[in-house]
Write a structure and sequence with these properties.
This protein has ten helices and ten strands. By secondary structure, it is an alpha/beta fold. A six-stranded mixed beta sheet has the order 6-7-8-3-9-10, with helices on both faces.
């Protein structure tokens, strides 16, 4: 039996006695793109941080590829196969675009200071970086990054850096935020083509039109609880979802 890519089992989180997540459970299969939506304050960021190991749940468990990773650190989870594309992108501006991505792909070589000192060759990492830069539409750039970069450019760079970690589960935190409508559509098209055998993607996003356009499956959370999970057309037709997320009745 093939293990699920991700399993969230009865996860609850409290901050100062207030419930941020309450008995949340859902599963992600291989080669899936799932849109993760919900109103502000729904607990989306908290659940993402639970998956990444930034927040410890009060109860429940997180399994990746059948392995319980609930007690692993964030770094250990990255090496187990989880990657996060941050909403706020902070590239290393003293390095080239190519080396920004190559550094991420060579992360395992930097696990210890001694091992890092012995690293001299980076041909494989730079080769992978070139492939990823082409995949995200940035081409092959070896010059240093300019001081000013368009937001869409930075967002694509962040996707490339996350993919360079060779994840089996990729979390994307609002990659369309701040983009113009054409840029958001292009970025959404890029995300649509990311899932494959061996890689699933969870898209945390407020741009509902683009999420509905590219995500075949939606997970909706409200007030720290799962509100709906299933095919996008069915979820968006749910009166409870329309009321909680869109503020309209059936």
């Amino acid at each position: 039996m093939i293990a699920k890519r991700l399993q969230i089992k009865n996860v609850s989180v409290k901050f100062g006695g207030l419930s941020a997540l309450e008995d949340v459970s859902f599963e992600v299969d291989d080669n899936q793109l799932i849109g993760f939506i919900g109103p502000n304050g729904a607990g989306k960021t908290t659940l993402m941080r639970v998956i990444m190991g930034m927040v410890n749940p009060l109860s429940g468990s997180v399994l990746l590829n059948g392995r319980n990773i609930t007690n692993l650190t964030s770094v250990q989870r990255i090496h187990a196969g989880v990657a996060l594309g941050q909403q706020i992108v902070k590239p290393l501006r003293q390095m080239s675009l190519l080396d920004n991505v190559a550094l991420a792909s060579g992360g395992k070589k930097l696990l210890s200071p001694m091992r890092a000192l012995l690293v001299q060759k980076r041909h494989k990492e730079r080769e992978l970086a070139r492939e990823l830069l082409i995949q995200v539409g940035l081409g092959d750039h070896s010059e240093k990054l300019p001081s000013e970069l368009p937001l869409g450019y930075l967002k694509r760079l962040e996707v490339a850096r996350a993919l360079a970690l060779r994840p089996s589960l990729l979390l994307l935190d609002e990659p369309l935020a701040g983009l113009s409508k054409p840029e958001a559509e292009q970025m959404a098209d890029l995300i649509y083509n990311l899932p494959r055998v061996g890689l699933s993607v969870i898209l945390i996003e407020h741009n509902l039109p683009q999420v509905q356009r590219i995500c075949p499956i939606l997970y909706v959370q409200s007030n720290g609880r799962q509100l709906a999970f299933g095919l996008t057309k069915d979820v968006m037709a749910d009166p409870a979802v329309r009321q909680a997320y869109l503020g309209v009745g059936a």
